[in-house]
Amino acid sequence: MYESYYGFTERPFQLSPDPRFFFATSHHQRALSYLQYGLDQGEGFIVITGPIGTGKTTIARNLLANLGDENIVAAQLVTTKLSPEELLELVASEFKINVKSNNKADILQAIENFLITLNKQGKRALLLVDEAQNLPAETVEELRMLSNFQLDNKPLIQSFLLGQEELKGIISAPDMEQFRQRIIASAHLKPLDVDEVKNYINHRLQQANCNKEALFSDDAFQLIFEKTLGVPRKINIFVDRLLLFGFLEELNTISCAAINEVAEEMSVELTGSLNGNPNEAFDNNTTTPVVVNSSENVEHIKNVLREVEEILETTIQEKVKMTRYIDKLLKQKSKQYAELQTKESES
Fold it and tell me: Which of 2, 84, 227, 311 is a plausible cystine mate for 142, CB 3.0–4.6 Å?
């Protein structure tokens, strides 16, 4: 929407991970170095953990995009709330292995035959497991069993696990000792500090070929850091919204006043909220019956209705802004068409 106004060739703060926009903080660079080290070793597990939105998937995509080794055949799993049998089926599917039946023994045999064939071709398999905190402990154990596939004392498959902080608890369980002994490196991602937030935003703007200097005021980055707590995904959501706001309001510079206004708008929305859980206003503890004639519950219902009213009002305001945007866009297109017609008549 705002790309042409700010001279971008594309939206710089999209949510979908894109290796071209990868920004390596010291933590991200360390994690990426561990992944690369794991590749060089060709064995064991690498584990990368971090809070939601800190860039684990982006690191995985960046690694896959820059492998530069035709002898590594990689597959990535993103749906990981799986039983051991479902995990094996998905591994076979992602590596495009033909399986005769859904029998676990047959699937394991097909996977082993595939890995041996790769080895004879001078290749090896790499499995990246994203959102690994969703894996049940017995499924993590199945991954360990896959790592037992060897030929001439060399492992035939290597696995990287990326997940939220809950993954630490799964791996730390007493019955996971054998798995822990096969972890050759691990890293934990952290949110960005204020300087990294500034560099992160400027990096993504440059990647989108921003042609405006000082798009954000000097003190804007500190405030963006405070609003997003340095979480890259929140930064993407927030700055994308700031740029849309700046376009609608025809701002050349995003000031602290604009940041505060957008943050206030987003604080009552159902999606893209920066602080807290947007559903908290509707958490009514359904395990306890509601006594309608209770003065406390009546007051609670009133509060909920007020929340709903605020959300509806915000939604209407957004619709108005969108209408303004469409009207502005139509005017721009009409002007461009008129200019084109004039040039054609002159020629």
Answer: 84
